[in-house]
């Protein structure tokens, strides 16, 4: 029930949530960052470590977020407050709900600018605006694209408008209806590009780059990258998953749904690698270009191949859809809060939010042109949004979620929501109370640049800390012991 007493809208089915949550997870970063990291840090060995990190850190946190959302049936603020109040705890814990909602909105404020690049390049591909035979010439196009505030502002505004039109129509008619064709459409376009790549002459090199099991390339840096990406890729601690979970029907398995989303996110990311890297290798280009791979190297490759314009258009349509499904998810927490707690209609909440978002994103957009010199402590407004969300709000929000789920709530609440058998619940509780928090602390220390020792030195220490945490925690509280006895 919402604050107004009306029944809360729910997804039409389990697939609605899975497609929406996967769409939230599959964004611009997954299209180039995860495939590149896979090849750089050992191929299949990196994927294996990444999946272990997903299971140890990402999945327990995601399950907790979905459980909070479904139990509280509201925005992150309302859901956390209701669940902790049900446990007889202070409403001050709802600060983590505020943090989650704020984080998602701040990310979206600069994400629409980056998403605008995708739409801009789709238009350039359609109109022949990506002519140029060298990376330097395409870099000049990219620079000119960002240097013009009217151009960059137009495309970021377009992303904002498209996002608000979709979320303004509601959960079923807006979000679910659109992700039901966007996500399958994205997968179909990836498959088309993979088939094309299979005949490009670079597929075998791309496959080896992504899937060779090279443990020698899996350094401490690679393991930390796998751990960090496993947390950030699932859109955790940004309000999206908790809000989407609030629309999840009671009879849907949270565990199976979470594992499905994590698997789909990984598969789509690897498919993106199989779509992109054959083209790169076939044209003798460097697969380690980062963002330049998409906006500078790939357009040159498309020009050099048969039907290159067609496949370039397909690629940037796919990229734009990935960007849009992520932007939809990041604003939903704010829309939900305005509707449930402040009495806004869905449409008025969307457009009110859109106006504020447009103002903040415009300031972020100006960081690339007329506001490039407007800095504080050496960072532009865009940089500060990125820094505060990725290095502070997301790790702290994720840590707060598992601490509440593992230590603060009445043990029966999570047991009831997750619906696991006693042994699996005891395993989840162990992960949520000790393994996930330790993993998040490692991520937190890494993104803040606090590591100056090698992997071989600090991982034994981390293992010792984990053991100490378990011993101390179970000395202070019998909850996990009770769960194990029940098992």
TrEMBL record:
<feature type="transmembrane region" description="Helical">
    <location>
        <begin position="392"/>
        <end position="413"/>
    </location>
</feature>
<dbReference type="InterPro" id="IPR047218">
    <property type="entry name" value="YocR/YhdH-like"/>
</dbReference>
<keyword id="KW-0472">Membrane</keyword>
<keyword id="KW-0813">Transport</keyword>
<feature type="transmembrane region" description="Helical">
    <location>
        <begin position="12"/>
        <end position="32"/>
    </location>
</feature>
<dbReference type="Pfam" id="PF00209">
    <property type="entry name" value="SNF"/>
</dbReference>
<feature type="transmembrane region" description="Helical">
    <location>
        <begin position="223"/>
        <end position="247"/>
    </location>
</feature>
<feature type="transmembrane region" description="Helical">
    <location>
        <begin position="349"/>
        <end position="372"/>
    </location>
</feature>
<feature type="transmembrane region" description="Helical">
    <location>
        <begin position="425"/>
        <end position="451"/>
    </location>
</feature>
<feature type="transmembrane region" description="Helical">
    <location>
        <begin position="183"/>
        <end position="203"/>
    </location>
</feature>
<dbReference type="InterPro" id="IPR000175">
    <property type="entry name" value="Na/ntran_symport"/>
</dbReference>
<feature type="transmembrane region" description="Helical">
    <location>
        <begin position="44"/>
        <end position="68"/>
    </location>
</feature>
<comment type="similarity">
    <text>Belongs to the sodium:neurotransmitter symporter (SNF) (TC 2.A.22) family.</text>
</comment>
<dbReference type="InterPro" id="IPR037272">
    <property type="entry name" value="SNS_sf"/>
</dbReference>
<protein>
    <recommendedName>
        <fullName>Transporter</fullName>
    </recommendedName>
</protein>
<keyword id="KW-0812">Transmembrane</keyword>
<feature type="transmembrane region" description="Helical">
    <location>
        <begin position="259"/>
        <end position="280"/>
    </location>
</feature>
<feature type="transmembrane region" description="Helical">
    <location>
        <begin position="457"/>
        <end position="476"/>
    </location>
</feature>
<feature type="transmembrane region" description="Helical">
    <location>
        <begin position="152"/>
        <end position="171"/>
    </location>
</feature>
<feature type="transmembrane region" description="Helical">
    <location>
        <begin position="300"/>
        <end position="328"/>
    </location>
</feature>
<feature type="transmembrane region" description="Helical">
    <location>
        <begin position="95"/>
        <end position="119"/>
    </location>
</feature>
<keyword id="KW-1133">Transmembrane helix</keyword>
<keyword id="KW-0769">Symport</keyword>
